[in-house]
Amino acid sequence: MTRSTRRSRTVALTASAVVIALGATACGGSSSNSGSGAPGKGGTLTVLNKADFDHLDPQRVYTTEGSSMDQEIVRDLTGWDETGSKPKLVGDLATDTGTPSKGATVWTFHLRHGVKYQDGTEVTAPDVKYGVERFFSSDINGGPPYAAQWLVGGADYKGPYQGKELDSIQTPDKYTIVFHLNQPVADFNETTTMTGWAAVPKAHDTGSTYDTHVWSDGPYMIKSYTKNKELVLTRNKNWSQATDPIRQQNVDEMDVRFGQDESAIDQQIKADAGTAQTSIQQWPIAGSDLSQLANDPSLKSRYYKIPAPGINYLAINTTRVKDLKVRQAIEYAVDKTTVRGAFGGSAYGDYATTMLSPGIGGYQKFNQYSANPAGNLAKAKALMKQAGNPKPSMSIAVENTPTQEHFADAVKTALERIGIHVNISPIDASNYFSTVNNTKNQYDLTWGDWIADWPNASTVLPTLFDGRLIKKNPQANQDLSYLNDPKVNALIDKAATMTDVEQRNATYGRMDQQVLKDAAVVPLMYMNFSDMSGSKVGGVIPDTILAEPSLVHVYVKH
Question: Where is the Solute-binding protein family domain (predicted)?
């Protein structure tokens, strides 16, 4: 998953003692200036974001900020209870985490009775079926690929808008839904924690404009939404705590404001005056502010440092930069020390040498290129010489934020040293991923970050490097390096059918090594994400799956 400057993320820190009172344990800096022990009710939480969400339509969301916000509005079949020391898979709309049969090729879920939409009608299995079927419509693009990859008949199905249903999703009664898969998927019930497995009532589906009209079955519903300006959520009066094991409904409203500069948001929340006291940010602290804020003891109680199961990387377009020697030269030339400086230095994360990050099943420690994070200029120049000393010009795509533009400058400086001229292409942050994921817009070099959709290599390498998906998802292509290596594809197919976890993980480790041998990407950093809230915000849970500050228990202190 992607995070606009964080792509699917994982987390591990908490900040107010109230969270501890709710049963969470902090792996980092828990604080003792707790305020009261019980969540307050009422008030407005303000969320300050640099840009609007790519999407809130549950079938189109594929950024961590959008997914985190959607948790307030829609419910999925399963979800993560993150109040304990590590995330626990639980039923959300479903009564439990589902039942596999026929070698994990059939999965059955039973829905809770009495889950209500904002108009008081009950959520039913046909609504979930219809929601999942929306994934397949060309009007509803941008979301994750799993439904299309795994549901029988998914390759040819074109969505529900011509009145056709997908037969591999069955609803034998109002509260039962059964999925028939084309291969065993042992962790399918972790896929169903993603927002796309949410119910959409057909009568309220507005197609490609559903982003601003999402029909709520969660604790909050859309009161108003002006794109790129403001989203206001208010209580869904028909939501019931008795049917929801994950969320609470503590604040009256959530006011999400878009369009301020990252540093301006940081300084406002740091100053902690007026509405900033009841504010939180979803995008990480700007690189230029990070080391200062990370080391400020006065902010400790409201600073969340969230290690992500993810990677910040530079993709090299293998169909445009065709010479392997040139790509290898780029691997050696990039100076990760200046790159990391742009993102905020060591507080941002450790230097990366692999695409799988530590903590993800399948991670193996290896380093294909320079042992020194500053690179190896002599080696890079020698490779360019072997390539015939070309003097190419290359485009690099980045978000139009100061952090990213500093990053692009660092790459440009490094590559100019080996005779590669770099043209920087800044793209509006709110449209960044929908732009670079569209195959019509190809760049030589593209910044990306990726967080596992759940903590398993199956949600990293196949999504980012299965070259066969490029044609299938021309508007939602995650393979930013356009790698289509038969060796990688064969390993993807092999791993997909393996039920032995250790064997499967070993196969993913080999896949990671092959991607680096192909010099398709430069892994930069294993990421941490750091966010702050005002002093009157309580109940924030570090979401170790999305690496976002989770708002599911948030409250405002009075």
Answer: 88-467
